[in-house]
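## retry 2 of 3
previous attempt timed out at serialization; input unchanged, resubmitting
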Amino acid sequence: MTNQIQPIFILPEDSKRTIGKDAQRNNIMAAKAVAETIRTTLGPKGMDKMLVSSMGDIIVTNDGATILDEIKIEHPAAKMIVEAAKTQDNEVGDGTTTVAILIGELLKNAEKLLDDNIHPTVIIKGYRKASEKAMEILRDIADDISDSDTYRNIALTAMTGKGAEIAKSRLANLTVDAVMQVKDGNEVSLDDIKIEKKTGESVESSELIKGILMDKERVHSGMPKKITNARIALLDAALEIKSTEIDAKIQISSPEQIQSFLEQEERIIRELTKKVINSKANVVVCQKGIDDLAQHYLAKEGIYAVRRVKKSDMEKLAKATNAVIVSNVNDLTEKELGMAGIVEAKKVGDEEMTYVRECPSAKAVTLLIRGGTSHVVDEIERAVKDALGVLAASIKYNKIVPGAGAVEIELAKELKKYSNTLSGREQLAALAFANSIEIIPRTLAENAGLDPIDVLAELKSRHESDKNIGIDVFTGKSINSIENGIVEPLQIKIQAIRSATEVAELILRIDDVIASGADKGPGPGMPPQGMPEY
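## retry succeeded, writing output
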């Protein structure tokens, strides 16, 4: 009698597993689906996506990072692309769509090599070598930033094709001025640029305030509406009676005691406000509360006061006005005060807001963005943030490359030459990498309704003599990108190629996908075949 071998179960019964080529194909298909979804948004003639949440909230955008963040992607490989796009956005502020498209194309071309029985590790090695060479070529192509006009062109390029198109010239000037105001050497902290959004008026009415705009009104109607030559006290302390930390009862047995109790409270508040008045401050910005009586005393002295201001606004005010945030009113003296040319209450839309402007050496500023509807304002904010991000990267690294697809055509040309120096199957992988880079100018042409084959053929022939030739999507002709002011920071391209290569390599290494059963906790379940519904 023969012994029957019992099957061994390693995984729970309801786990699902995809192995080998099936796993690779599944992951590559998901990555291609993500790339195809946002590919139509690339470039000056890119289209927008309307994203509607289950609550009915609407977002209209062509910002790659926002689209990938808002659509609820379930596929694990597709989630890696979302992470790469987020990293790109955090590091350099733009180029998120480029990253997603590049990952999709790298994997699409790798799939052809896998079909020819080339091992994934060989493809990965070839991709890595081509990626390192691409960084080298990019650094050779890059030029130094020579003047302030270049920064304006960088901002214009970042905003072209986005919702800010209608007023991109005005917004480009505002973003450049904002970054130049807050920069410290070659470092720019974007936290020092506050973006305030208000619907109403046109996008052209957007303005840069060399100071801070607060969503707060005067605490008392008797206070002046406008103060010139403002001396500003920043208080992280309440101008009111402190309540006890623990529950306490006060027993009063006669009217005289009530009177003396109230008088004592009044005296304490008068003392607090006297200290503020004695400091010669004519504007008080308080992070905590201001008692009604204190408001009355301050108004009598012609002092402008706001209360319950956000901590982040207090810190920005300190940077803008050179004031010191004081935690104890007893420590407030003239030395701690900050300076501003004007502090005034103004209606913006239907709300009264406080402007602190004309600060002599403001190291924090506010961009007030206007627009017809909340959707318009939100999209302009995204475009402005992209412009600020690329300007910060430009100032930090001080290098630019030609835009309009010029840098990608040059990269592809040089990488094809480089692939011929490699031996064996790595040569095919490096060549596939070079072809993948061409997806960017190809997509720019497709989105503009041009014939990509004709466009690429013309660009390639002209690149034999000039590395700066790109595509003018409005005319369909090839142009000199640098001369036409279409430039991008070097760091955007380096980060995009680095992230795209790393994610493509990571996905190519996977040959086994094990998905836990749905009843074993919040596991992701079996990866769906394509993109999810949204």
